[in-house]
Description:
- Chain A is mostly helical.
- Chain A has 3 helices and no strands.
- The radius of gyration of chain A is 26 Å and the shape is elongated.
- With 804 residues, chain B is of the alpha+beta class.
- Residues 1-11 and 599-603 of chain B have low confidence and may be disordered.
- Chain B has 6 domains: 1-69, no CATH class; 75-162, 2-Layer Sandwich (Alpha-Beta Plaits), CATH 3.30.70; 173-299 and 418-476 and 743-785, no CATH class; 308-411, Calcium-transporting ATPase, cytoplasmic transduction domain A (Distorted Sandwich), CATH 2.70.150; 488-516 and 625-741, HAD superfamily/HAD-like (Rossmann fold), CATH 3.40.50.1000; 517-624, Calcium-transporting ATPase, cytoplasmic domain N (3-Layer(aba) Sandwich).
- At the A-B interface, α1, α2 and α3 of A face α4, α7 and α9 of B.
Amino acid sequence: MSVILVLIGFSLFVALMFLGAYFWAVKSGQYDDKYTPSVRILFDDKKEIEKDEIKDNKHKLSK
Amino acid sequence: MIKTDIYTPTAQELKCYHCGEDCSTADIHISDKVFCCNGCKTVYEILNQNNLCEYYNIDENPGITKTKDIKRNYDFLDDRELIEELIDFTDGRTTKVTFSIPQMHCSSCIWILENLYKLNHAIKYSKADFLKKIVVVQFDQEKITLKEVVELLDSIGYEPDLNLEGKQQNKSNSETKKLYYKIGVAGFAFGNIMLFSFPEYLSFDSFHIDNISQVFSYLNVIFALPVFFYSASEYFISAFKGLRKKIFNIDVPVSLGITVLFSRSLYEILAQTGPGYFDSMTALVFLLLIGRVFQNKTYDSLNFERNYKSYFPISVTIKKGNKESTKPVGKLEVGDRIVIKNQELIPADSILIKGHGYIDYSFVTGESNPVEKVNGDILYAGGKQIGSALEVETVKEVSQSYLTQLWNNRAFHKDYENRLDTLVNIVSKYFTFIILCIAVIAAIFWWPNANLAFNAFTAVLIIACPCALALSTPFTLGNTLRIFGRNKFYLKNTGIVEKLAGISNIVFDKTGTLTETGNLKVKFEGEPLSDYEKKIVKTLVYNSGHPLSNGIYNLLQVDKLDNITEYRELPAQGIKAIIDGHNIQIGSRMFVTNNDPNETNLSTKVYLSIDNKIRGFFAVKNIYRVKVDQIISSLKNFFKLSLLSGDNDGEKEELQEMFGTNTEMMFKQSPQDKLDYVKSLQTKGNSVLMIGDGLNDAGALMQSDVGISISEDANNFSPACDGILESKSFLKLDEFIKFAKTSKYIIIISFILSFAYNIIGMYFAVQGTLSPVIAAILMPLSSISVVIFTTLSTNILAKKKGLI
């Protein structure tokens, strides 16, 4: 049965890792702002050159 | 040939590309994009130059209007001391600063504020927090100054709200973090202890043989220690504080229960008589802490604690000889000569030295019409100058001024900790007493058998631990708070809901509360004007910046003419000009007719004469909020209403019609009068709800049991209060009060429910046969079912009343 003790020790180690991860998450401010990141992730990182082209096209059109 | 559609906007479609406001003409435009004003156009140009037009793709017309914009002077941000107070951190090269940006309202705002580095490369990094409406900016101190950063933000329409009070927020932030840590510890221990207790519940035989049960028990002790000493600590502290003041708050029986659970379990395990109740204890602490998170719901971006300082500018322009410099308001001394520009507040009581004062005191007194001031007059702090710049000399320090003295009143130093009157605290007082009695009786009953007596005594205290009782209030009120929040009614904390349920009197402020802010209704009385005459009048008033002129301008729905000559504006009297060959005058009766000196007052009636013939007058009236009479007549049946106004009694009859004869109405009330009135109602044993808006109501809002400030936008300035109600939701006021009462009944029902569980548990406890399994099932079951009951019932009832 002593194998249970080994397993218990191992499972405790894993559980403590998760507790540590939770603490790290709280400390690093992941729970401070629960809204903005959900918006931020939707922003596209368009390349600058692309935008220049779009602008040029619009310019031509308006002429 | 390529056919290009040339965009020709119709009158209805003329919306500013930047801010979405209606444009009167398409004069201001860049290619096909129309702007309402040059300010908006400039912002667009800045963004366009920096390839930041993505801003307009995220949300439609995201910008902040620049129509009413005035050029702000940020020279005071050169002051070293002030900079140090404003910034969070600097290492000499990189500076970090947190700005509060009340204008932040959409995804585009977040995007632009996080792309500041594209506008100026000296800004290294900026991060927005939408709910708190702040942006943290890190910049290279050697390449850009704080002042330049602020000016940059202002130039794209996000004027930071600079005040020195912002630092408090960090404190509440670290408190929340602590709570999260505690929940983490409690949840971790709860889960693991449950796991180790499971074999015990199922009573495996081999489990006891191999001493594994012992190992599990000791592990449970190790897990329970941090829960008892760390996670549950605030309940002990609160109970101790309460007892010292001889108050039996709900935390007293809770801590008693936790302590007995802990010590009896520890004893059982060390004496090897049983497995203990650590599973129940940790579950209980875990649930209680979750209840606390639910209760602590706060509106981060709203500030309920504002005092007069946040209304005042952070610095003022002072004049020494011919040199102008800036000085922080706090350092202002008696005798300083200040320059007050258009739309600026007067920070301290002072004497007018130079310039023509046209002071809007609506902020302070509630009087809706600006007053004229001439050289030598005393100007009270809090007034706002409209028009040209003034020079004034301070006669009192900021803190000693007429307005700010209100803050020395005792109402502003109330002790809010002492919340004796909450329902749960009243109940817990009797509850603790009864439980202790039952425990003692059970022990005496079993007495010859010391072991059984001890078991029964502790079991009663364990099972009676009022977890469900302690959870019902935070969950019910927390949910009510959220439901109110969805309806744009923001309360400071859950205690206010309970207070709101108990009010008997409602006191209204008039200006800004019953009437709309900044909207004057102008009505023309006299010989009707032809369209051509209207055009002439409109042309004349267009040239004046006077608020009454603006009112008349908006009244006349015609185009204006161009050929205006000999325009003259005589302060405090009127304006005149020759337009299209016609001699036209608008102003006080005396100004227009040159006789009848009795009626020189310009504030109520503005006379008009065309070609020296009097045509009638424009009467100015406040506009009442839509359907305000309905809400009043519905509230009238349940509460005693009163009306306080800083204004004169000019509209008394109209108000009487609305309120009926039963309502007390007081006019020309100073802020102090309002406070005293509320106090006098309270001394008669009434519970008062005050509804106001400006600084002039600040004292009354503070003094009242529930002070609600009404605001066009919750993020605008509002004085210290218990709740902020957006004006759009003003009509739901009676629903809110009714619902607050409903939540109180829900709490009472959930109390009965939790007592029922206690009685069942008691049945086992007094017999001394409370097994850990029963405790582990009964205690969380009672708590969770109470939580589900309160949450569901508040939601269902809110839906029924149309609040969700």
